[in-house]
TrEMBL record:
Keywords: ATP-binding, Nucleotide-binding
UniProt superkingdom: Bacteria
Keyword Cytoplasm set for record: no
InterPro entries: AAA+_ATPase, AAA_lid_6, ATPase_AAA_core, CbxX/CfxQ, CbxX/CfxQ_RuBisCO_ESX, P-loop_NTPase, Spore_V_K
PANTHER family, per the entry: AAA-TYPE ATPASE FAMILY PROTEIN / ANKYRIN REPEAT FAMILY PROTEIN (PTHR43392), AAA-TYPE ATPASE FAMILY PROTEIN _ ANKYRIN REPEAT FAMILY PROTEIN (PTHR43392:SF2)
Organism this protein belongs to: Priestia flexa
Pfam families according to UniProt: AAA (PF00004), AAA_lid_6 (PF17866)
CDD domains, per the entry: AAA
Similarity-based family: Belongs to the CbxX/CfxQ family.
UniProt xrefs under SMART domains: AAA
Record carries keyword Lipid metabolism: no
Annotated protein name in UniProt: Stage V sporulation protein K
């Protein structure tokens, strides 16, 4: 007859027989317990990686942003352990032609720095020369101070920053630079300054102001897109708008990009913006064609033909 058993907390196994309990044998049982491991939540990094995965190219830039996150995270861990945590300014320079994603990346960095408690607001203030340079002595300093005040807790993004040095020693742009440098020192941990512009002009700007380079520990290059990346951008823009290319339209656009990149790059070539402008012109041309054809089937509504592509 099968004998019922009971397991007591002390690990002894007792056999119950004829309403009497007799101790037959003792086992030392080891009940496995789950090992407690610290849960590391890298959601700020995962969030920016998700958003940057939607951007074409930028592999080196994505790697650099991950390094910035890692440095910030480890510094916080060092502080929690009572160790010295290195303090470093987060001011940056972005070198790249128009349409290479500089403003988009600046916005994403604002979100990352907000989530990492580096910045209190994470907002982006965009500015150019006219927003900083005044018309008389003292006016420029006040305009620049007002902009910095708006940017506190976030990022001040100045495009075509080299234009501040174009007028020479007597130009008020120099006053704007001097005021910015002062606030970079006085409010170093309260805002992030990003100067952006064309690569060649930015290098020249740094050579004219040798003290500036050392104040920007992060200098990012935003390279122009190659032909395949331009087509990738076009495909994503078309998907977002619920359009598609016909085979001939796709071929025509790609051949145009190859010609632009390898034979006759226009002075105003603007990468992603250049692609967007072509698509917007082409969609308008398709609308005119469909209106004349009075053909409004779903396939016709979403397809751009070769004759629609406006280069």
């Amino acid at each position: 007859m099968e004998q019922p058993i009971t397991l007591k907390n002390n690990g002894q196994i007792n056999i119950v027989l004829n309403n009497e309990t007799k101790k037959e044998r003792v086992y030392t049982t080891s009940i496995p317990r789950p090992v407690k491991r610290p849960i590391v939540n890298h959601e700020p990094l995962l969030e920016i990686e998700r958003e940057m995965s939607g951007l074409v190219g930028m592999d080196e830039l994505k790697k650099m942003i991950k390094e910035i996150y890692a440095w910030l995270y480890i510094n916080k861990k060092r502080e929690e352990s009572g160790l010295k945590a290195e303090k470093q300014a987060m001011h940056m320079m972005f070198k790249g032609n128009p349409g290479t994603g500089k403003t988009t990346v600046a916005r994403l960095l604002g979100k990352l720095f907000l989530n990492m408690n580096v910045l209190s607001k994470g907002h982006l203030i965009e500015a150019e020369r006219a927003d900083l340079v005044g018309e008389y002595i003292g006016h420029t300093a006040q305009k620049t101070r007002d902009l910095v005040k708006k940017a506190l807790g976030g990022i001040l993004f100045i495009d075509e920053a080299y234009s501040l040095a174009r007028g020479g020693e007597k130009d008020f742009g120099k006053e704007a630079i001097d005021t910015l440098v002062k606030h970079m020192e006085d409010a170093n941990d309260k805002f992030v300054l990003i100067l952006a512009g064309y690569p060649r002009e930015m290098e020249n700007f740094l050579s004219l102001n040798p003290g500036l380079r050392s104040r920007f520990p992060f200098i990012f290059d935003f390279p122009d897109y190659d032909v395949n990346e331009l087509m990738d951008i076009a495909d994503r823009m078309m998907d977002d708008r619920q359009y598609q290319f016909s085979g001939d339209a796709y071929k025509k656009l790609k051949e145009h990009f190859m010609d632009v990149k390898y034979n006759q790059t226009p002075l105003d070539f603007s990468n992603g913006r250049y692609v967007r402008n072509i698509l917007e012109r082409s969609i308008r041309a398709q609308s005119m064609r469909l209106l004349e054809e009075a053909n409004y089937g779903k396939e016709q509504l979403i397809t751009l033909k070769s004759s629609d592509i406006r280069l």
